[in-house]
Every structure is written in structure tokens, then in C-alpha cells.
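The protein record quoted for completeness.
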Amino acid sequence: MAVAPLRAENESSLRSPRRGPVFHVLSETLCTLGSEMNPLHLRLSRRQALGVAAGGALGAAAVGFGLDELIGSSPRLAAVSAGGWPSPLNDPRARAAHLLRRAGFGYTQSDLDSAATLSYDDLVDRLVSQRPDSLAAPADVTNHNAFTAAWYTHMATTTSQLPERMTLFWHGVLTSDYRNAARLPFVFQQNALQRSAGLTDLRSLLSATTRDPLMMRYLNLDASTATAPNENYARELMELFTLGPGNYSETDVREAARALSGLRIQLYDASGSRIAQPKLDKNNPQAYVDQVNALVRAGATYRGTLVARQHDAGVKTFLGRTGNLGADDVIDTVLAQPACAPFVTRRAMTFFATPSPSDSDVNAIATQFRDSRYDIRTLMRAIFRSTAFTAPANYRSLMRSPTDYMVAAMRALNQPALAAVAVRSAAGMDQFLYDPPNVAGWPSNSGWVSSSTLLGRVNFATAATTRMTALPDPAAAVRTQLDSVLGSDTSAAIRAAGSDADRWFALLASPEFQLK
């Protein structure tokens, strides 16, 4: 393919970038990484994608380029984002793409064509009204790698992307560690819970989470008794899940722990009757796994159930409410606190809209959230319709998490079979699903950036593009996936690439694809 020389659109109007924190850290790290890598291990375009694109991004404004046959023309650019990108968000098609990138994981050209025919508000309504697609159980629900591969495949193929995006969001907020599942289907169950309840209401979600076996094991709720109440879940429910530091006392932690005591994990069949847990034979562990999988296939589930003799039935005073309080009383009392709606809203806005939401934006949306009785669809509709979400300053203001990045690449390449590669690559990017660094969950935005984790992304892009025998058109991808808004050095890397595989590598490894 003949490639025409680069031409900057409207060069006279370019302004120096006001570098946003995410893009600044990403660019500096890419630049350092590019200078340290051995060029013998990279094709020329890869060297450029790492070193040249990053260095140029630090030194000049990111601009929308037309590469004629390769890239085509970009939309009219009227404003510059906080990261220095000319923002195309005044264009309806670019605004639709911006929403699809953040409310989901990715899209095809036909998906974008369809979305762009709707008004922005109608597109928001269509996305927010999506119902989740169930994730089919893998052959062995006790095998964490098998489950994770199945989830990657589901994220890369479901047509109901917002419910899946919400599943990933709640996984990072109401987080747990897969090791606590042992060889039981607790990870699969928590994932299904966060998918089915993730767009319902916050009370239902928190009530189910309190009785979720993986959460109970992770924060020791299944060992809490009347005589020795465990405070871990009570503390994190307030500090990390709903209120934030400073909005409760140590007395509140102790009293909530008493109210939450006595929950135990029990097994129920499909009709709701309690059944016995399979026994592990150390001489034949596979027989135990087979029994667990058979029970799951038959509809059996584990869930937290109150055992009265283990529960503290005395009077408690929690956040100003006094009585013989239980688990749901704790949740209702938390939801009644003025700090709850703004805290949850800020978490959601940071994940979906902007790395630093203003107090005024948070409070305006939190009011709608609280007034709807914590309806999560109302929350998401308000975020997507907010001026903060579509503000030119917030174009490419968010960093894709490793999971988001890999699923976006799988969708862009139309290769859900890369799920196994994603599982192997995840640890190198510091996001092995259900293995968060701590109970606070995953980092966000610039917290994902380091030379080692970006090298993990490069390795994934390498694996994704070298395994393919037929690749989609990279020129169309630049228009569809990147809005034709590229920095000069990413454009140069694509132009210098000698094959479609190298063009795709340059695209997937570029700062532009890491951001959304």
C-alpha cells in the first residue's frame, strides 16, 4: 500500500498540550521503556511505537493527522483535552465512539455506524437498558484459570457490554481474592452475582455481597460469632465500599461487627433446600472436584445464611441507630448516611468519566442517585449524560486497565480466542483477575503505568498481532478505534510499518489505544 506523506490538519491552530496526569505519566514511561529496550528484539515500528511516539508526545501537541490512503481524514477538532489531544467530541460520531469505549470494551465499524444514527441521549438510554448475558460455566468452575479465560471470552463477545463493564467495575470495588475459594465455585458465583445485580440497586447488591461466600471468606465474615465478632467486613463495608474514611467511628465498626455476626456458608440445591457439602477425599481429590461441578450444573449454590446461635442478638447502636440490629439493618443504616451516595458516585465517575471529578459534579449526580433509592441505572444514565463525561478536557483522560486493554484489542481484532493469551499476560500487567493487591481493589488511571506493566502490554500486542493470519484493515481501525486523532510519532510508526501486522502492533502499542 502506498502511503502519502503526513499532513497535519489545521497546523496553524495547534496549541501546546496541557498534559493531563494520566497521559503525562504514560508518555514518560513509554519514552523510558523505548530507550531501554533492545532494538534487536523489536521491529522498527515497535521501536517507534514505544520510543518515538512517547518522546514526541512529550514534546509537542497530539494532533489529528490525515494519512490519505492509510488513515483518511479526521473530524473537525474544536478544542484540546487536558492531555493535549485535539478533542473531536463536538462531532456526533466521535461522541458515540467515546461513549461506547467507556460504557463497553470496544466496537466494530458497524456497531459505531448504528450508534451514530441515534441521538446521544437515545444511545445512552439504549446502553443503560441492556440486560446482562449469563456467563456459561466452564467445564471446571473450581479452576481459576479456566474461569478467567471464560470471562475474557465473554467480555470480548457479549452484545450487552455495559452490564459486563459494571461486573468489572464492581469486581474492583467489592473485591475478593480467588485463593479464598479453594476448590469451590465461589469466584464463579461472585462474578455471576456482580453481573446480575450490578445494574439493579445498591441495597440489593450490598445485601447479596454480604452473604456472598467469596466475600465472607475474604473478610472473615464466615468466622464471626457472638462471642468473637470479626470486624474486617464491617470496617471495609464503610471505609472502602460505601462511606469512606472519617464517616464512622471505631465504635460503629464494633457494633456493626456484632450485627453481622452469625453468617455461615451453606449449600442449597436448585429448589432451595439445604444439602450436604461434598467430602474431600485426599486420596482422590478429582472425585471431589467432579462432585462440586456436578452440583453446580444441577443448579446448586453456596450462600451465607444466618445461624441464630452464632449471632449476637443484643441491642447495638450503629451510626446513631439503636436496636437488635442484623445484617440488613447495617446496610440500610449505611445507605441512610449523607456520605454514601457521593462516595459511590465518585468511585463510578472516576472509573467511567474523569480521573478527578469535581465536587459539584459528584454532588449533582449523587443527589439523583440517592433520590432514585440508589438505582444503579439512574446513576449510570446521569454519569453518561453529564457535562463532565463529554467535556473536551476529558477526551482520552482515562487509562485503560489491563483487562480493558486486552478485551478492547480482542474486539478490535475480532479475536475472542486470544482469551488464553490474556490470562497468561495478565500478571505481567499487574491485573490477574480476582487477585487484587489489597482489599482496596485495583488502581486506576496512572496507577496502571510502569515500565514493567507497559512492557506487558507490548508483549500482549506482539502475541496478538503475530498469531494472526488475517487482520482487519488497520486504516479503518485508525478511523474507528482512534477517531483519526493521533500524535505525530504514532502516525510515523504506522507509516513506517511494512505490513498490516506491524501497523496493528503500532496501533495497539500506542498511547492513543491505551487511553479512552
